[in-house]
Every structure is written in C-alpha cells, then in structure tokens.
Amino acid sequence: MKNLTSCDLVCEAYSKGELEAERVTCTKLQDFTLASWPCYRDAIPQFFSRLLLPSLSSFKAKCSMGSIMPNPEDSFRSIRHAINVSQSPLTTLEFENGPIAEEDLLSILRTTPTLEFLKLVDVGPHAITDQTLNELTVRPNKDFITPRLSSLHLISEVEFTSRKFVAMVESRQNGLLGVDHLKSVIIGWVTDEDDLNENEASNVDILSALDTYRSEGLEFILMTEKRTAQDSEDETED
C-alpha cells in the first residue's frame, strides 16, 4: 500500500461487513477513482475513515443512484474528512450521483488552495450556495478560496442566486491578486419540467451574460436538463 500511486476502487452492490479498524496510510497514492453501487449502510464512510492520503492530487467518484444508506450525504462527508485529515494537495475533484451538504464542500474548498478542476453532477441543490459563491468571489482586502481554480462544472439542481454566480466568475476574470482565470465553466440547470418556469428562465438568462467572456478564452456552456423519473423516485424514497 505504501508504494501504490493509483487506485480504481469498485464497491459492489449491497456489499457489507466490518472493516479493519487500523488506519492505512498510502503515502504515494496520487490518483483515486471510486465507482460505487448501492452499498450496505456505512461501507464507504467506514472505508474512508481509515485512509490517509497525503499525496492525493486527483479524486473522482461516481456513486450509484438509489443508495440504501440512511444518510446518503455521509458518502461525500467521509471523503471530505479523509482529504482534510490527510491535507491532500488536491488538484482535481469530481463527484457524481450523491447529495453534498454545503458545509462539506466548503470545508474542502477552504483547505485545498491547490484545487484546479471541480466537477459536480447530480449532487442536490445545496452543494454550491450563495455562501459558497461569496467565498469564491475575489475581492481586495477580503479572504477568498481556491486561487488556482480554472474549471468549474456543475450539472445539478441549483438554488444559488444567478447574479452572485456571474459576479464570482467576473471577479476571477479580472486578474486580481494573482488569481488564475477560469478557463472552463459548464452549468447544467436541472429542472422538473420540460420547459423552464418563469423564475428558472430568468436565472438562466442572467447566467447567459457570461457569454461575453468567450471572446477572452473562457469555455462557457449553459444547458438545461429535465430531471429523470429515477431521480424523482429516489427523492420520494428519501
């Protein structure tokens, strides 16, 4: 384990069983990929509570839909704990198909100034909030987070204020305080209906103001998606 540099882990469907309590340190592990089918109770939290990953630079996770965990947010929370405790020099973070609480994502962003690429897909409406956007916004004489962030991809339900998102992106394109410019911003606005309601349409229209930065080299993609029937069923079950 000490010489392991990359790991592709697959959690099998409904696997269970107690893990060893001893902590495992993977001193050279840089790339970690997790694919998870519905796991029994706290299998993923148990696993990550025992890991130290002091060299981790890339973490990618794709969870299954329909987790049987009583608290599905615990999957990402345990990953956040491992990254924070390890003080991992993370540059890439991708997470799909699992709810993320605002405080868990903020905890990683606040303690990982090396982060360059952030991709979140189907993570619920509370992963990125107005508070998150406030802390990502670059202002003179005020603390901000993730100075190296160059790519932000979010495909999920959102509840943040569109104007705050636009202001955050604009603040990072101004070259203030040595912060890297955003090179890629992808927003997939997930909605319940085939057509956007009036409020959603207004928010999408506000976000489209970022089109102007394409001439300066920003890859900006704004799309809308209807939430699948399976997503709705999962929420009802929760």
From TrEMBL:
InterPro entries: LRR_dom_sf (IPR032675). This is F-box domain-containing protein.
